[in-house]
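ESCALATION

Customer reports they have been waiting on this structure for their group meeting. Please prioritize. Original submission:
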Amino acid sequence: MRVKPFRRPFSLALRLTFFISLSTILAFFAFTWFMLHSVEKHFAEQDISDLQQISTAMHRILQSPADPDQKKISKLKESITSYRNVAVLLLDPQGKTLFSSAQGAALRPAMNAADFSAHRRAQDVFLWTVEDPAAPMHAGHDMKMETYRIIASSGSATLQGEAQNYVMLIGLSINFHLHYLDALKKNLFAIAAVISLLIILIIRIAVRQGHLPLRNVSNAIKNITSENLDARLEPSRVPVELEQLVISFNHMIEKIEDVFTRQANFSADIAHEIRTPITNLVTQTEIALSQNRSPKELEDVLYSSLEEYNRMTRMVSDMLFLAQADNNQLIPDRVMFDLRAEVVKVFDFFEAWAEERNITLNVNGQPCLTEGDPQMFRRAINNLLSNALRYTPEGNAVTVSVSEQENDVELVVENPGTLIPQEHLPRLFDRFYRVDPSRQRKGEGSGIGLAIVKSIVAAHHGKVRVESDAVSTRFILSVPKK
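Update from on-call: job pushed to the front of the queue and completed.
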């Protein structure tokens, strides 16, 4: 199968230049055509008016009963001398010439036209082109062709001493007009070609200048690297068409900066978290090897090392779990289960630790069915409860409430404790995030328990948030029923 080669789209500048130039040029040519049409129509109206005036005058002369034939002929000659390029042909019903001007004979072939009789009855004006040896040569014409605008009419008059009918053809040569229109067309089209080139050039420059803010934005974006992710574009300094683009870019770069910062902090944190147990293992081993130890002392060292190994194992397992979540590889089982029953199961696991610290565990709410992975939810509840027990003062209670909403099931883990500042709340679900950066973890867990909670809830298309005030801190988890 032959793969069709990819063709890169035309640039925006080229598209704008083409369409704007095409629209402008078409408008200019339309104006040129309209002007030519107007001039041609004006000439035609002028010619028709002249022919109708001449025809009326001729008929008046011929139909004058007081004038003899000679005087009528003389008046006909005098009347056409004031008009330039006029030909007159007067015929009797048999086609015999009664009167003809100098170019009158050139009109006779028009009588052979198929619709001549219809033109004569309606006294229409029509065009007729003949080859006339007497016609003057014009520039651009290689033949002596003469084009007449002709009006044909008939009447009755006293001629040669008796009343008889006649046919009169009056032709007005329009070669001068045609020559003018031909020259005007050539000049206009030559000017139109030059103006079109100028239009394309001007629009090209205008489009390039119009795209200058876009190029400036592009250059500003190009200068942003991983070392200056705090740089932002100023929306008020770009045209309104680019304002939303700049705002969107700033939002995107904020997210990238946040992810980049978290990634950098995460790398440092995980190095620190792994270094601590490794340092402990190395120190304990060096101390054990520094002098002779009894079997009991060596056994204590091994148990201590085993605790550090288990801690690193849990951390690696949690990191693999989060890596799966980041790559959308968490595929929870879909079964119906009672969320309150899972809370009770987790309580059984934490009862000993709670009694040791004199903390009461309470569960509120009725059984609530939801669809999901029970083991994942149990792990999320375990992490939330472990976190709550760790920060609850002795002698207080941790309360877990389960409630059923219209479309969701909500689980709230509440514990009394110190107020968490508002600016820290959105970051509590980040990996290895500490409200107090100077505080070191000593047996407090891997530091990614809340991040795992967020990943599990996201895999079930739910939401998790945290609220804190002077009385208590509440982690609120909500997931769809199905």
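Sent to customer with the following note: The chain has a mean pLDDT of 81.
Escalation resolved.
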